[in-house]
Amino acid sequence: MATTILPGTVVPEVLLGKENYENWSSCIKNYLLAQDLWDIIETSMEPPCKPEDDDHEVEFKAWRKKNAATLHAIQISCGMNILSEIKGISSAKILWDKLAKKYEHPAQEGRVSLKLLAAGGDNMNQTTGFSEYTKLYEAVRNSEWEVANEFITQHPDSVRAKITHLGQTVLHFAVLAQCEDIAKWLVEEKMSKEDLEIRDNEGLTALALTIICGYQRMVECMITKNPELVTVGNNRGLDSPIVLALRHGQTELAHYLYVTTPFEELLPERGPLGATVVTKAIHTAHYDLAERLIRRCPRLAITLDTDNICPLSLFVGTSSLFGAEFLKAPWNHMTMIKLVSPRHADIFKYYLDNRKEGQTHAGSIGGSGTHDQAADSMSIRSLKKQYLRLLFVMFDSMSWTMNEYQIGIESGLAQAIFTAVRAGIIGFVSLIVEEKRELLYWVRDGKTRNVLMSAVQHRQAIIFGMIFGLKETKATLLSTRDNLGNNILHVAGTLTEFSPLLEDITGAALKMQTEVQWFKGVEKLCNPMYRNERNFAGLTPEQVFTQTHKKLIEEGERWMKDTASSCTVVGALIMTIMFAAAFTVPGGNNQDTGFPILLNRKLLKIFIIADSLSLFSSSTSVLIFLGILTSRFEAKYFRRSLPAKMIMGLSTLFFSIATMMIAFYSAILIMLCGESWIVIPLIGLASVPIYLYVSMHFGLLVDMFASTYGSSTFDRKMKMGIHMGSHFA
Q1: CATH, domain range 114-307
Q2: Could you tell me the pTM of the whole model?
Q3: pLDDT of 36
Q4: What domain of life is recorded for the organism (predicted)?
């Protein structure tokens, strides 16, 4: 078999050293096998003796050729530093063994897999590299208490030594291996309080692993020995034990740890731990735990957690799951009870199913039966009640915390307000307007934008109108700028990447029209001087609008041209048919006079009138659509000019289709007069394609007509917001 090796590396990875030897050797071995060269490595390193006769000479030359090909393949796949060391070696076998001896790692053992340990499989990783603890490792894995006791008695320091490559102590490993008796014995008799605080390479204490696995009796044993473990951080100090329990869906453990954790550690003055517990409880639908915390310390509702999210902001955001009615409704007890209804049971069912699944996959040591019973006892109804109780506690906490609020950029209450503005949660904003409206004048987001600018940015017209209608707004909010020097018109001219307003609009041209209406609507309410103000980039609001909407303008142009082109084809086809039909009237013409034979029949007159109207209207529509194809596509033309042309074109096209069908029906009735059994099916079948075409485009015509000649979305919703805000004046 001929072996051809192209210049350059033969495998995708060049050997650089120990760090990539394993990958390189695997690739080069597969290559040599594919080229039928691997037997050079597996056989003796000594070449066949060079014989005198021709038969043995052929054998020697074949070996030499394979050896050279193998040697060459290995050499060109090595880095330059390694190549300089091996270039003098002439045997591929010797070269392979030399590289393996120098760069091959010892067997990677001791990397304990939680899944394998839990299963207790025979293929569990060993502890090579920690050979002095191999006996202890095997004793724990096999639940041999006597052997483990003997080893620890002889080596007392081994209880705090790291015996695996993951930096785990014998207690860590006993937890993972589900050896409850050994773990309990270690905690109660062999380890000190300080030993229980040792973390592995992942930053986890043995208690943390026990919580993740869901072994309640072992958790209680460790905390009894060292109560301070409940405050020891894990994952580099980010997660406390109670947070870990919530993250991993350990409901019973979360409640137990809440009771055993000193409440002083959860107060805002001690850091973000308390707020983190509340946010994780909301995330995992442990609403009862979040309620208890907020009830005891209302300030936790506006305290930032370790991810810089405040519980109130998170909770406000989750309310959007309950649909548009929830967003628009006033936030009071009676309304919320009605809106959090059984038809939203799927939201709570997800959390319930997820919690049950977590309990099913949890370990079976130390009270998993209790976990199963707790999970089975949960119901969608109880989750709904817990959610409502938390909602009411949030109401009460707001009235208390508003007397001590922070108004800075990092404020939790400010974060909650801007979350409500972005999501369009009108009820929450109206609650702020009613209870503490001065907050709206001072809170700022990360770009130092106020709530009015945020409402404009996220196209929330009702909230904009509600705030704009307040008498203090013009003096305090309209004239401010953000940290980039943008005034409110600059913000109106900026296209937000994800706009809920545009998601519900079909067609890029209609989206562009809505954006222009928003910009012009805000412009009309502002001081005319704002139009010429420049931000720190030197751009006016109109220039910002053009720059940020460039892609949408191109998409709108493409959409208009594609629609006009397809409609032009239909209009031209109708025009051609109607023109030909005008000279081939049903019944034919009188050869003497040239007039139609059936001229005096009403149906023929209807045919001629309908044919003429269809011809004229289709011709008009074609000309209008051709005009659209040659129009200028600038932002300002999307507001009225281009949509008006499209409306006229579609209207005349639909009219031509309707009159064409009238002409067709008239012709059928003239030719098949009295043959209703043929006429009716023909008319019905001919109407199907026309109906399908019109139904697919008529909705577009209605939407475009409403947005162009009716009240714009901005004006309509803003007036609604002003009306709502007037009740709080």
Answers
A1: 1.25.40.20
A2: 0.65
A3: 79
A4: Eukaryota
